[in-house]
Predict the structure.
Amino acid sequence: MEIVHLGNPVLREKSLPVPEVNDEIRSMVAEMFDLMIEAQGVGLAAPQVGKLLRLFVVIADDDVRRVFINPQIIATSQNLVPYEEGCLSIPKVYENIMRPEKITVNALNEKGKPFTLEADGLLARIIQHEYDHLEGMVFIDRGDPDFKKKTEETFERREKRRQEKALQKQHKQQRIAAKKANQDNAC
């Protein structure tokens, strides 16, 4: 399991409901927590690991592991607050984003049990950020349009360079293999 980055089309698709909370889903949730912690994140949604499922995991400033399966944000406060957000799928990019200060969310936990949570502060922010991923949105969609365009262009260039390097590496390996084969045939 690895985190996908901006430019991967899965980040722009709407996720599908989890049909059943089973051992496969619980295993995925455990892997997502491990990956999120390793990447030093506070939230991770299934689309960020290439899975179009409506689920995300969160560890906010209270250090509680929370799982949200098939979440629905059912209420938001009218009071909006700014906060500098970042995203594991858009590394090293940050922007102030306005979001409701408080939310109420319904979801299932990793045991398939329904719950309702009223959240504010950082926890509310993380839930809204991860929920956006389920809707095919990333945080830069909520900010300055010019910043969004510049960020998308930067990630397109990075991906192009990554692909070029991979192709160069493949060509080099082919040349080495051909040279080795010629040496083996000469013997």
About this structure: The first helix runs from residue 23 to 38. The chain is about 40% helix and 30% strand.
